[in-house]
Amino acid sequence: MHAAPSASPFRLGLTGGIGSGKSTIAQRLRECGATLIDADHISRSLTAIGGAALPNIAQSFGTDLIDTQGALNRARMRELVFADPKARQQLEGILHPLIAEQTRQQHEAAIAAGSKLIVHDIPLLVESGHWRGKLDGVLVVDCRESTQVERVMARSGLTQDAVQNIIAAQATRVQRLAVADWVLYNDEGITIDSLNAYTDQIAAWFGL
To answer: Distance between CA atoms of 129 and 136, rounded to whole angstroms?
Structure first.
């Protein structure tokens, strides 16, 4: 267990599989006063209308991957990268340097603002391989795979096979738990009030 931070902000990596409830934890920590740096949010902004990644995506994959509004056609790109590992690597080669630069800028701004806790919300923390050395600790939000499938199907309308394909492309529970300093178990029977209470305890430990 790490000692509670004092002068320097604590750099907490937050991760979990799709449907684990990670985003709920992230937002609660933000409400408690943590600075949240959301890798997915940054990625979406880069591929939204006018996003900095779009010219390179259009050049590499063709303009048919850009929708009529001028944003990334996420559904088509999702199909492509799941079917073709090389396409996934190509997309990551475009996005990751841009995400890293925006992350750096937000991190420096948080330090300048005197943040006690900087939460890096990183869905692919384990898969990326380079994040662990840049963090002071990792919080993993964990639940059973069957719970992940149920939650994602309910909220997204995806089929069971589609959800299981997404899960299969992510790190396993065992791999995530292996890098965890803390684990917050969020499965059936745990209410939102209980989840918030657990998260508040984590925030309080950092002086928030």
So the answer is: 15
Assess contact for 117 and 208: CB atoms under 8 A: yes
Cα dihedral value 74, 175, 164, 183, nearest 10: -90
Most distant pair of Cα atoms in the chain: their distance: 51
Task: Please provide residue 36's backbone torsions phi and psi, each rounded to the nearest 5 degrees.
Answer: -105, 125
Report which of 25, 6, 5 is spatially closest to residue 15, judged by C-alpha positions.
25
Q: How far apart are CA 137 and CA 10, in angstroms?
A: 8
pLDDT tens-digit profile of 34-66? 999 998 999 999 999 999 999 999 999 999 899
Q: What is the DSSP letter of 116?
A: S
Token pair listed for 60: 């590499």
What pTM does this model have?
0.86
Read off the pLDDT of residues 12-35 as tens digits, 9 standing for 90 and up: 999 999 999 999 999 999 999 999
Q: Using an 8 Å Cβ cutoff, are 41 and 22 in contact? A: no
Which residues, other chains included, contact 46 with Cβ-Cβ below 8 Å and sequence gap of 6+? 52, 53, 54, 95, 98, 99, 102
137-142 and 10-16 strand pairing: parallel
